[in-house]
């Protein structure tokens, strides 16, 4: 979406409530509760004050484990996503409310009802991040244990979304539901009815929720595989991306938007929104010092060892994090140390990963902990507010992203400085709104309107 006044692309900004993980610094004295409602309210109101598009909540279906124990950066206490978003609808007015709900361990009818209800409660601000769940460890929490191979997970996700859309589109929105004068209940006996049948689902009935303000929630997708990118090109309104550097961002955006034409879609029909961390200072040099301090807090010696175990696939509790990398090669085969850890999937060739890390550590003289700090990523944006604002604008104008989902390292106050110091500069540059344009999240994201539901 471009500004009519400036002709420049508008920067989309959103806020992510991260939970306790390797992004947050829960040990910082300024860090607050990850589960008290006041923390969610603070972050949401800060995002709305900064005129951001939406607040995003991930969903943790099971606590991660390392060597049979709860991972040191996980926490007992992840409230249900839709419950929190529904509560936030009552304390915000314009902010979109986006939540991750898995297509692997849920049912289309119930998810459709939940998001239609959230869309009604919020006046048209609901968004659904459609994901697949990949591991049998998480599946043990559900009646249908185990997991599906990647190609079946995405096939189920596609048909899950089609089935959910059948429920969401059951009501056109123009039917007469009741006329007390004549006693008429429905003008069309088929109104509100749906049916969907495929290899995964066989559902039929009548939806209990009237067509919501957006018709359907805005659909997000977060997969980075070829299957995930294709799914986003076919079905999603926005895709979350982990490619937050300039060159990687441009390549990713070009790839995923280049797939849209085969589905009859335009580049502006799909927003690319990478997750982004940040470190701000009065000067660029001060920001760099703050960034280093944060990274060292995020990666303790214990955390570094746990991360190395994801690759080496064996107990490294006796390894010195301030010494060199393990001399032995990783243990091949299924990872039996880290369970429920997405990072395990990222290292499909542990031997090659270890070789690459050893070369990097030797070239730069890095200890095991320093190596983990290096490879797990640094803050996306580091600098003074003016530097960060200029960098964000460059990324968006050059097509490296349509905007960013900001992940603060402190909850709940970690977004405040960005809202107070960076956003006003973007507004002065004419690339970020000063007021919300529309009444729904779809309006504020600049997405095309949905076609009316079939009659």
TrEMBL record:
Coiled coil: none
Protein name: NtaA/DmoA family FMN-dependent monooxygenase
TM segment ranges: none
InterPro entries according to UniProt: Diverse_substr_monoxygenases, Luciferase-like_dom, Luciferase-like_sf, NTA_MOA
Signal peptide per UniProt: none
Domain spans labelled Luciferase-like: 31-400
Annotated source species: Kineococcus glutinatus
Keyword annotations from UniProtKB, A to Z: Flavoprotein, FMN, Monooxygenase, Oxidoreductase
